[in-house]
Every structure is written in C-alpha cells, then in structure tokens.
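ok here's Tyrosine-type recombinase/integrase:
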Amino acid sequence: MAEVQAVKSLDTVKLISHLLDRHYGQQMADIWNVGLNLALRITDLLSIRFSDIQAERLLLKEGKTGKLANIKLNQKTIEIIHRIRVEHPTHFYLFQSYRNQRAGNVPPAPLSRRYVSRAFALIGEDVGIDLGTHSMRKTRGYHLYKSTKDIARVMKMLRHSSEGVTLRYIGITQEDIDKDFVELEI
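and the structure:
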C-alpha cells in the first residue's frame, strides 16, 4: 500500500471535494471539507458527536494519543456542521451512517473508516494522487507550513512531538527546502 500524500494544489483540493460529492454524495464531501479544517485522524473525525461541539469549539479526546483536541472551528466548518444538524436533527454523530436508520433497534454509529478510505482512494486515482484518509490532515499541515514557514506551529496543530516527523508527514522534501532557499533572496 502506497503512503498517502498531502494535496499541494488548492485547485485539486476543491476538485476532490467536487468529485466526492458527485460520486459519493454530500456526506463524503463534508467529511473531506471538515477533515481538512480540523486536521484530525480519521477515527477521531468520524467519532465526533454533536455533543462534542460546544459553541464554536470542538472538544475531543483523541483515540490514538489520549490528548485533548480543543479546536476553534472556522466559519466554513461551522456552516457545514449547522447544515448537517438541520438536515439530520436526530443524528448522534456528525457523520452518522444512514444504514442504522433503517435498522430498528441498532444503536447509531458513524460511517466506517474503511468506507471513507475506499472512496478517497478511488477519487485519488481519478486525480492522480495517492489519496487516503490521512491526506486531509497532511494537506492541512502542508498548507499551514507553506503559508507560515513555522514548523513549530504545524507540530502543535498536528500534536506531533518532532520537527522531522512533521516535515516528513506533510511531505516537505529537500526539493521544497531548496526551492525556498532559491526563492528567498535577501
């Protein structure tokens, strides 16, 4: 299995959202768009309950690390969450599986990581990128780094403990660093 990539072109980020909506529906496009804005691991993203959202903040204990993610929501994310709440007022999870609505006494559950992963991989083939569920998190980190050049800030956002891990994770290569040296003349 190939390592998934950050999406480095903002036009491609928008194209992926459009293709997910067209081929898999609004819910899958919402996962992509919210995932880009929250930079959470997919299991944490899919486990978000409406009760985890307090005013304009998301308070969530991360499954992998046990760390508290206390994230201020941006306007785009707030609008998506509000629309989902209005369209599905009885849902427990932000990205709840619709299958459970049909089953009588089955408790609500979020979409499966596997389903989302498959959809992303197929869209990735269409756009020529090794796309996966981690691509949302990597893309957010990559674009924050490109706009600020502040690796410590990216590390904090991703809740990483090593600069090297963060640079490798977001796909910053020696070629990118060389380009930065050439483009910035003082």
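+1. The CA atoms of residues 19 and 123 lie 7 Å apart.
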